[in-house]
Design a protein that fits this description.
Helix content of chain A: under 10%
Number of strands of chain B: 11
Distance between the termini of chain B: 41 Å
Strand content of chain B: over 45%
Radius of gyration of chain B: 14 Å
Largest interface: A-B, 23 and 24 residues
Mean pLDDT of chain B: 92
Shape of chain B: globular
Number of helices of chain B: 0
Order of helices and strands of chain B: EEEEEEEEEEE
Low-confidence stretches of chain B: none
Helix content of chain B: under 10%
Distance between the termini of chain A: 36 Å
Low-confidence stretches of chain A: none
Oligomer: heterodimer
Structural class of chain A: mainly beta
Chain lengths: 111, 115
C-alpha cells in the first residue's frame, strides 16, 4: 500500500498563475479531505468528500479555490488566480469513516 | 465554535525524561480525539485515537487520556528518546452539526529531546 499520494510535492509559482494540486487516496477509502497548514492558522480543513461527493466546503477560503473528485481514485484542488497569501502546505487525507490517513503534503509558494 | 489549544507551544527535554503534553477543547460534545505526530516536511501520523466513551489509550511508550467533562486530554511519553522529536498535534472531532468527519486541530507542541 503506497499510502495517500500527492503531487507535486513542491510548487513555486508566480502570483496570478493557476495552481493544481493532485491527490490519489488509498484504495477503498470513501472519504477524502483537503487541509491547509500555515504558521499563522495551523491546520484547517478546506473541503471533504464522501463517495466522490463534496459534503462540506465551508473551509474553502474564497471563490479562487475549487476542488473536484471525478472518481474514487483521484481529486484535485485548484487555485485560480493564486496569491502570495495562498502559500502553505496542502495536505490530502483519505479514510473510512473517522480515521484519516494523511499524505505527505504539497508545499506551495506563491511569489 | 470548537477551539483546541495546546500547551506548551514548545518543549525541550533531556533524553530519558517522562513528559506530558496538554490539549484543551472548549466544547465537550466530541465524537473522538486524536493525537498526531508531524515530522519536519512530512505529513501527519496518527498516534492514538480515543473515542468519547473512553478514558485512555496506550501504545508502547505513549499514553493518552481524555477527560471530556473538563475538556482536556494529555499525551504522556515515557522515557523520551531523540527520535521522539517532532510536532505533536491534538485534534477533536465534533459530534453534532453534520461534522462527524471534521477534525479540528490544535496548533501543536514542538518537542525536542536532547541526547
Amino acid at each position: 500500500d503506497a499510502g495517500v499520494i500527492q503531487s507535486p510535492r513542491h510548487e513555486v509559482t508566480e502570483m496570478g498563475q493557476e495552481v493544481t494540486l493532485r491527490c490519489k487516496p488509498i484504495s477503498g477509502h470513501d472519504y477524502l479531505f483537503w487541509y491547509r497548514q500555515t504558521m499563522m492558522r495551523g491546520l484547517e480543513l478546506l473541503i471533504y468528500f464522501n463517495n466522490n461527493v463534496p459534503i462540506d466546503d465551508s473551509g474553502m477560503p474564497e471563490d479562487r479555490f475549487s476542488a473536484k473528485m471525478p472518481n474514487a481514485s483521484f481529486s484535485t484542488l485548484k487555485i485560480q488566480p493564486s496569491e502570495p497569501r495562498d502559500s502553505a502546505v496542502y495536505f490530502c487525507a483519505s479514510g473510512r469513516e473517522t480515521n484519516e490517513i494523511f499524505g505527505p503534503g504539497t508545499r506551495l509558494t506563491v511569489l | 465554535k470548537q477551539e483546541v489549544t495546546q500547551i506548551p507551544a514548545a518543549l525541550s527535554v533531556p533524553e530519558g525524561e517522562n513528559l506530558v503534553l496538554n490539549c484543551s477543547f472548549t466544547d465537550s460534545a466530541i465524537y473522538n480525539l486524536q493525537w498526531f505526530r508531524q515530522d519536519p516536511g512530512k505529513g501527519l501520523t496518527s498516534l492514538l485515537l480515543i473515542q468519547s466513551s473512553q478514558r485512555e489509550q496506550t501504545s508502547g511508550r505513549l499514553n493518552a487520556s481524555l477527560d471530556k467533562s473538563s475538556g482536556r486530554s494529555t499525551l504522556y511519553i515515557a522515557a523520551s528518546q531523540p527520535g521522539d522529536s517532532a510536532t505533536y498535534l491534538c485534534a477533536v472531532r465534533p459530534r453534532y452539526g453534520g461534522a462527524t468527519n471534521k477534525l479540528i486541530f490544535g496548533t501543536g507542541t514542538l518537542l525536542a529531546v536532547q541526547p
